[in-house]
Amino acid sequence: MSTETTQSRPGVLAPGGIWRNWGRSASSNPTWVARPTTVGEVVDIVKWAGATGLTVKTVGAGHSFTPIAATDGVLLDLGWIEGVVAVDEALGQVTLGAGTNLHQLPDILRPYGLALANMGDIDRQTIAGAISTGTHGTGAGFGGLATQVVGMTLVIGDGSILRVTETKNAELLPAVRLGLGALGVIVDVTLQCVPAYLLSAVERPENLDAVLAEFEQRSTAVDHFEFYWWPHTDAVSTKSNTRLAGDAERAPLHPVGEWWEDRLLSNGALSLMCAVGRIAPSATPAINRLATKLVGNRDFTDYSHRVFVSPRTVRFREMEYAIPRASVPAALRDIRTLIENRGWRISFPIEVRVAAADANWLSTAHGRDAGYIAVHRHYRDDPEEYFRAVEQIMRGYGGRPHWGKLHYQDAGSLAPLYPHFADFVAVRDRLDPGRVFANPYLTRVLGA
Ligand SMILES: Cc1cc2nc3c(=O)[nH]c(=O)nc-3n(C[C@H](O)[C@H](O)[C@H](O)COP(=O)(O)OP(=O)(O)OC[C@H]3O[C@@H](n4cnc5c(N)ncnc54)[C@H](O)[C@@H]3O)c2cc1C
After folding, report:
1. What pLDDT was estimated at residue 8?
2. Is 95 helix (H, G, I), strand (E, B) or coil?
3. Cα atoms found within 13 Å of the Cα of residue 65, Cβ hemisphere only
4. Which residue's alpha carbon is at the smallest distance from atom 7 of ligand 1?
5. Distance between start and end Cα atoms, the chain
6. Contact at 8 Å (CB) between 196 and 246?
7. 69 neighbors 181 (Cβ within 8 angstroms)
8. Is 22 close to ligand 1, i.e. is its CB under 6 Å away?
9. pLDDT tens column, 232-269
10. In this predicted structure, what is the pLDDT of residue 189?
11. What is the pLDDT of residues 80-128, one digit of tens each?
């Protein structure tokens, strides 16, 4: 492909090198890499790439398991376009550079007495990357991160700047909030925040069948409910988090206890379990039973972000499906039967979460209250046979795959799952008719 054009090459471009994601499930070899520091430089890069026939892909923190951020064209890293752009204290809205990492937010929001309404398990992602794939936490009354977006600025396919808010180009909001990186380069994001709050966390070992029997009630009885089921056991670790006022009394974990459970047991022991499971798979059930006795029996109260987020140091690969919330018990029982029948040895716990229905067109919770079931495998283990079989079960319940986690579907099977799929594609045709932001993954899931 020729890179000669009448437009001179933006100085911010440097020759590319190998790029890999966190889960080591995707890699690419971009021709160029750019770390722009201004929106003007982003515009120049998009225009130049469009003129030369190269594609542009913005990469966040590389925490998607799918190759959604992979490119052999221009890899755009917005790590320098980060931090606070504007704050509307009266409305509780904060505009952030798109490359801002979620872990920066507590410090950014604290002076304004604000916090994110909900968060996922980790905070390594960028805000633009997280919303673009539909990153979510848990809570029957709460949507994913993209539902907290009230505005954004994008550089679209022809290099022009597009502002979308609740009053300007508002019809595009349900598409651009969760746009898979297909609609443009997001340069800033405006979030609706909430007054800072604490979470009272109750973590308990419980019985799987008992929790499934009352799943609907359990998942709506507290603000944020989730559980992990350890395959080959009847045990689950439940987490029930209740929101408290920001000035409520904190009772944080003792640093040693936190290190012992979150670092050593949850990560170090998990790593060891995976290694042992690979050498002696028959030991996995016993190891899982031991794990259920060691973790997940504690109470504490802390700042919301300190409760939502946990360290993840064991590298893994993940698939996660959203199904109607009421179908979770039946689907999980099917997965248990599957694992028993196939005789697999699964070291990683299976994670179950919930979220409120929302209106974003490609949200996995679009139009229905969602229950999420996530399966994992160590990154050195081939996940395909397990993930494909679980996917078949989840598809039987009308499952929608997380856009940033492994799955085996394409546009043909995904389109019927989303009432506004064609509307989304029409917006893509409008904002990126030349497919400057395309890559093979987007072609697979959205079409050419
Ligand atoms: C350990 C771990 C834990 C996780 N926990 C959760 C969880 O609790 N809940 C959950 O839902 N998911 C979770 N995920 C998945 C993760 O949140 C998503 O995959 C998320 O998209 C990653 O964000 P990122 O910044 O790394 O984006 P990347 O993976 O780098 O990119 C994702 C997409 O966003 C696009 N993008 C990035 N920046 C821009 C921009 N400025 N403009 C336009 N497009 C852009 C990329 O092109 C790509 O399409 C987890 C992943 C890992 C590895």
Report:
1. 83
2. strand
3. 24
4. 120
5. 19
6. yes
7. yes
8. yes
9. 999 999 999 999 999 999 999 987 766 666 665 666 66
10. 98
11. 999 999 999 999 999 999 999 999 999 999 999 999 999 999 999 999 9
| Contact (Cβ atoms closer than 8 angstroms) between residue 305 and residue 123 | yes
Task: Report phi then psi at 146, rounded to 5.
Answer: -65, -25
* Each residue's pLDDT tens digit, 205-220: 999 999 999 999 999 9
Six token digits for residue 172: 């595009």
Q: Whose CA is nearest to atom 44 of ligand 1?
A: 181
User: The tokens 């550079």 sit on which residue?
Assistant: 97
128 CB within 6 A, ligand 1 = yes
The CB of 129 under 6 Å from ligand 1? The reply is: yes
**Spatial distance between the Cα atoms of 291 and 431, rounded to a whole number of angstroms:** 50
Q: Is 312 in the pocket of ligand 1 (CB under 6 A)?
A: yes
State phi, psi for 111 to the nearest 5 degrees.
-60, -20
CB 442 within 8 A of CB 182: yes
The residue whose CA is least distant from atom 34 of ligand 1 is 129
Q: What are phi and psi of 77, to 5 degrees?
A: -115, 115
Nearest one of 304, 327, 252, 306 to 142, comparing CA atoms: 304
Q: What would the DSSP string read from start to end of 170-209?
A: GGGHHHHTT-TT-S-EEEEEEEE-EE-EEEEEEEEEEEHH
> What gap in Å lies between CA 285 and CA 36, rounded to an integer?
50
Cβ neighbors of 182 (< 8 A, separation 6 or more) are 428, 432, 437, 438, 442, 446
DSSP per position, 54-73: --EEEE-SS--SSGGG--SS
- State residue 206's pLDDT score: 95
Q: How far apart, in whole angstroms, are the C-alpha atoms of residue 127 and residue 97?
A: 8
Gyration radius from the chain CA atoms: 22
- The amino acid sitting at 82 is E
